Amino acid sequence: MSARLEAEHLYKVFGRRPKEAAERLRDGADREELRADGTTAAVIDASFAVAPGQIFVVMGLSGSGKSTLLRMLNGLLEPTAGHVRFDGQDLTALGAAELREVRARKISMVFQHFALFPHRSVLENAAYGLAVQGVPRAEREERAAEALRLCGLAGWERSWPDELSGGMQQRVGLARALATDADLLLMDESFSALDPLIRRDMQDQLLQLQRTLKKTIVFITHDLNEAMRLGDRIAVMRDGRIVQDGTAEDILLRPADDYVASFTKDVDRSRVLTAAAVMDTEPRGDEADCGCATATPDTPFGELCALGARVPHPVAVLDADGAVVGVVPPRRLVGALGDGPGAPEPCDSPREATDGKVTARA
Ligand SMILES: Nc1ncnc2c1ncn2[C@@H]1O[C@H](COP(=O)(O)OP(=O)(O)OP(=O)(O)O)[C@@H](O)[C@H]1O
Ligand SMILES: [Mg+2]
């Protein structure tokens, strides 16, 4: 599948002589060296590709360069070096007017504190992007009403923003982004200001919308749990650089360095892991014979635990043809919830040695 959005060796340097500074970074200078000269390297050599319909999450601590990266993706900031390609078009090569056109029609942004117009109705707020595009009133109201409905706000069209809760206002922001039919949604900490329960609700709603709308989404957060719930892929940024780009399981099970690993400490592993990630891939071959307690590679961890608890033997993992591709002994389930990287090596006691085998029938 070809990429819808591509970043190629993107740099953004703020301050004096940015191009020269980007050259120095390319030659191995680090952020601190440049800072001494009063120059900030906000994004350093960022490359990635986002496939159509994917949610690509960028996460990292405050100041790591996430928002700067996002603003280069929609052309609000010009990269110091590198290219952004969207639908095969090099955004960095476009003139200001062409760029505005692409931004108005194909890209939508949703911010952390969505600034609604206080003296316009919810419907008019949701229709704002369409008004900018010059869509006639009747059509834009119809499309905005549909977007509000998708975001769970049917019946609120004629209300004023201050009659809505924070979570509902954020939904209006999302509806505004969806109403324009933009292919690319850029979301910068869109849910971060919401209470935890409402935030989860919004995450669920986004995932549900995404199942039908299949937008290409770049979602920024500094919450790894949120990143793991939403992201098909996650890029972790540190001091301007992408230090790892992978799936939730990659990040959790194979963190690129201690910095990435430190984020994963607070993650609820049971929500991320699947059978494929925890299974023993050297099954003996007769595991499927027991005829019960089988899983598939994408069986969620929680379900796997429930299966494992029902039977006195390991759970067999079968592929689509019914062939055994792995087994999950209880040891693996418990181990997966442990500390992950850095956890002590397993001890090879005789009991452990038989643990991967099916020892009894239910
Ligand atoms: N317009 C600007 N001029 C100078 N420096 C800037 C500018 N915008 C951002 N920076 C600097 O670039 C670095 C990255 O900032 P950025 O806003 O991209 O971080 P972030 O990861 O989005 O952080 P946060 O999580 O706090 O939003 C910071 O050191 C910031 O001070
Ligand atoms: Mg930011």
From TrEMBL:
InterPro entries with a match to the protein in the record: AAA+_ATPase (IPR003593), ABC_osmolyte_uptake_ATP-bind (IPR051921), ABC_transporter-like_ATP-bd (IPR003439), ABC_transporter-like_CS (IPR017871), Gly-betaine_transp_ATP-bd (IPR005892), P-loop_NTPase (IPR027417)
Q: Where is this region: Disordered?
A: 336-362
| Entry's Gene Ontology molecular function annotations | ATP binding
- Domain ABC transporter spans what residues? 23-264
Under the heading PROSITE patterns, the entry gives:
ABC_TRANSPORTER_1, ABC_TRANSPORTER_2
Give the family this protein belongs to, as stated in its UniProt record.
Belongs to the ABC transporter superfamily.
**Protein name, UniProt field:** Glycine betaine/L-proline ABC transporter ATP-binding protein
Organism of origin is: Streptomyces broussonetiae
Q: What is the lineage of its organism?
A: Bacteria, Bacillati, Actinomycetota, Actinomycetes, Kitasatosporales
